[in-house]
Amino acid sequence: MIPPRADAAIGTIRFIVNGQAREYSGNPATRLADVLRDDLGLTGTKIGCNAGDCGACTVLLDGRQVCSCLTAVAQVDGREVTTVEGLAGIGALSGLQRAFHKHGAAQCGICTPGMLIAATDLLSHNPRPDADEVKDALGGVLCRCTGYQKIIEAVLDAAAAELPAAPAAGAAVGARAAKVDGLAKLTGDERYGADAIPADALWLRVVRSPHHHARFELGDLAAFAAAHAGIARVLCARDVPSNGFGIYPHIKDQPVLAEGTARFRGEAVLALVGARAAVEAISDADLPIRYTELPPVMGIAAAAAPGAPLVQADKPGNLLLDGWVRKGNAAAAFASCAAIAEATFESGFVEHAYIEPEAGWARRVGDRLEIHVTTQTPYMDRDEMALVMKLAREQIRIVPTACGGGFGGKLDISVQPLIGLAAWLLNRPVACVYTRPESMASSTKRHPSRVRIKSGCDAMGRLVAIETQADFDTGAYASWGPTVATRVPIHASGPYFVPHVSARGRAYFTHCHPSGAFRGFGVPQGAIAHEAMMDELADTLGMDRLALRRLNAIKAGEATATGQVLAHSAGLPQCLDALKPHWDEAIAACAAYNRTAGAKRRGAGLGCMWYGIGNTSLSNPSTMRIGLSAKGRLTLYNGAVDIGQGSNTILTQIAADALGLPMEQFAIVMGDTDLTADAGKTSASRQTFVSGKAVELAGRDLRAKVLTLLEASANAVLRLEGSMLKARDANGEHQYDLSWLPARSASDVLMGEGTFDPPTSPQDANGQGVPYATYAFAAQMAVVEVDCDLGTVRVLDIVAAHDVGKAINPIQVEGQIHGGILQGLGLALMEEYLPGRTENLHDYLIPTMGDIPRMKCILIEDAEPLGPSGAKGVGEPGLIPTAPAILGAIQHATGVRMHQVPVLPHRLRAAIKQAETK
Ligand code: FES
Ligand code: FES
């Protein structure tokens, strides 16, 4: 250790980073995180909040974990700092890093450096911790992807872990293969949106409306820029060539920069571009902008009220969309029901809370625009940028960076049009990184909902009719509102066979940030309602809650509410059968506990779900290519962005087996719109099913070409040894030197290609049709403990049975389920975004490592013939059943059915007290 300096506050600060002596001569109050990243280039240390809430910036200071965003660089004078880049030995991973790789503990990887550092601190003084000690030590680092389970497993295994061997040729599908792109996430080498900004880039800061609703007038922006050193330009609405964007081709209602009216707090009004210090030094109060605050329309009831002020002048009744599904005659059928349940359920905004805020940079290259950005959907970004900039699609190149979490929130564009416009106009690279409050104020959220539902069954418990009216708050602009308003009625009956269904979905405009896509597109809110009805019907008839669900579970050969007859792969019955022993045991255990437990009571609940994979009633194609170079290198040209869910690995597994070569011989090019084909967006749980099928076809195509070249038979065993392509079949050995082939592209001599567009059909006026080619199914069971005096709920266990068609990679599937469960727990118990009040990660709470229940995954593989090796999808399904199961368990424990999520302690306590006084 080097000795501390007395004059640290005014002179050069000297310290050791990863074993090397370093100096810093700037402002001693500068955050250590900024010095590490900006001055020393150690971007493995991440910034998720800059406020001590997320732990992404955790480093070791003299061997103990600290938040480097809360540590002034002066505090490290004379001390030793270790970042993630310093954890590995020369050329070798630490045991902890190997364990993370083996267990699939890094999904998007943005939290991984902080997790690794916190675990290193723990293991340095406690080499054999137990799970509770791991939770204590790592509890300050938030992860939004993994559900924490695999991180804990990895830390417990750190002493023994070896890097997993790659599966052999032909054995990749179904293997628990480690991530093909996993190592960079463990060493700090992965580059996210804020990590590779060119040194000469200008900085862009967005000026946002402080009001939910306001008119505003701008002064002389050019004069303002000229009067402020370091400011290159102030952009406003009139600078944007076509100032409207949106998800749907016919709805471009959201301005890049607001034009005279701000419709939500956090809406972009101006963009300051210049030197970073200059744009950050300007106070919003000093800008030539004058707001006139107007009364906002807040909430569904206000928006739907007769005569309500219009959020968008051309949207009468503030109504974005009114979607229907009608089958049979639900209203008449209720007359024949032996039991009827009826209720209304409400939910609020939920924030995605990806740990990586929106970030990226852009540059002009001749008459083209190149944008490097964290995104879920490079091809939609490309098309949207072409519209906004009035350029041809070919003039736009999107290069996705690593994505530090998305969950649907990075499907809508954020920094893209602003940095693109600025770079185009100024002909300089321009970068923008949102702050955490800015990210939370401006990004989309889960739609708040009000779902009125009525369900009826016969005396045997068979469902007869379901009637649902689901209303959603879509915020100021459409975003994914139409998708939610159509997807929810389709799924409103739940995963059951119901002869008579009437389901309506409406989305209303309000003066809030747009609601968008968030893991489930409204289906989680609907599932809370239909699962509560299943509980109530079972209770009314005196039936077991699982038995009622099993009786009604839809099966292959039966028709959904849209009249679609499920041809294959409807695995809810198997999921429920797998849960039954756990359910019976849990019911008995809760009863035994409750006989003696006083104010604490335990309950068990169930949640079932189905989820249509991919776009709703729309073409949904993906194209994949696999190239083979003259040197014998395989490249998967993959337009599907891996946002942490593991699609790079899963697609490689499928490609490897389709081609018949081992997966470690593949390299990946991901998402670059100049180098890949359009694979569609990473959403709606579609990449394994849709892009997986496309890559399977591409692999078969390349295999056919290779076999033709080798004159080998269809079942030949392939080998690739440098440029020598070899095969063995019944006729003996075949070989071909790839360097003899003419180049087919810049790097490849052979190319296989596959395209898959799942067969769907449009819905008619009654919503009848085939909206999805296949559906995932799941049933989860929750066991909770409720403190009836405090109103607090602790989730003790979740058992999750999921029909995924085929688990291409069980580690990744389990990781998706674990992560979904934790987000579902947040939806049920703690997460409620309040515009203007919870714009940070200390007022907006997401589950921490201390909140996790015991989680058990049961994978059901009811093969879908359309999918690759029978696979469907699991991204959204992991979340959807969790909140219904928790609410059912709370009701079982307390007798109180909660009708509003999150079930915050004060709400539950009030409901229990009210029930006691009845
Ligand atoms: S960035 Fe330091 S705690 Fe979040
Ligand atoms: S892996 Fe932890 S936040 Fe994504």
Describe this structure in words.
This protein is of the alpha+beta class and 918 residues long. Helices cover 27% and strands 24% of the residues. The chain is built from 22 helices and 34 strands. The strands form eight sheets. A seven-stranded mixed sheet has the order 8-10-6-18-15-16-17. A six-stranded mixed sheet has the order 12-22-21-20-13-34. It has a five-stranded mixed sheet with strand order 2-1-5-3-4, sandwiched between helices. Strand 27 and strand 28 (724-729) form a beta hairpin. Helix 3 (112-125) packs across helix 4 (131-138) and helix 15 (523-541) packs across helix 16 (545-552). The longest helix has 24 residues, at 687-710. The chain starts with 12 loop residues before the first strand and ends with a helix. It binds FE2/S2 (inorganic) cluster (2 copies). One FE2/S2 (inorganic) cluster binds next to loops.
Helical content, roughly? 25-40%
Strand content: 15-25%
Number of helices: 22
In spatial order, strands of the major sheet run: 8-10-6-18-15-16-17
Give the gist of this structure:
The chain has 918 residues and is an alpha+beta fold. Helix content is 27%, strand content 24%. The strands form eight sheets. It has a seven-stranded mixed beta sheet with strand order 8-10-6-18-15-16-17.
What distinguishing features does this structure have?
six-stranded mixed beta sheet, alpha+beta, disordered N terminus, binds FE2/S2 (inorganic) cluster, 918 residues
Chain-wise SSE layout:
Layout: E1 13-17, E2 20-24, H1 32-39, E3 58-61, E4 64-67, E5 80-82, H2 95-103, H3 112-125, H4 131-138, H5 149-156, H6 183-187, E6 202-208, E7 214-218, H7 221-226, E8 231-235, E9 261-262, E10 268-274, H8 276-281, E11 289-293, H9 300-304, E12 319-327, H10 330-333, E13 339-347, E14 350-351, E15 359-365, E16 368-373, H11 378-389, E17 396-400, H12 416-426, E18 430-433, H13 436-442, E19 445-446, E20 449-457, E21 463-475, H14 481-491, E22 500-509, H15 523-541, H16 545-552, H17 572-594, E23 600-612, E24 622-628, E25 634-638, H18 647-659, E26 666-670, H19 687-710, E27 717-721, E28 724-729, E29 732-737, E30 750-756, E31 775-787, E32 792-803, H20 810-829, E33 854-860, H21 882-894, E34 900-901, H22 905-917
Parallel strand pairs: 1-5, 6-18, 13-34, 16-17, 21-22, 25-26, 32-33
Antiparallel strand pairs: 1-2, 3-4, 3-5, 6-10, 7-9, 7-11, 8-10, 12-22, 13-20, 14-19, 15-16, 15-18, 20-21, 23-31, 24-25, 24-30, 27-28, 28-29, 31-32
The structure holds FE2/S2 (inorganic) cluster (2 copies).
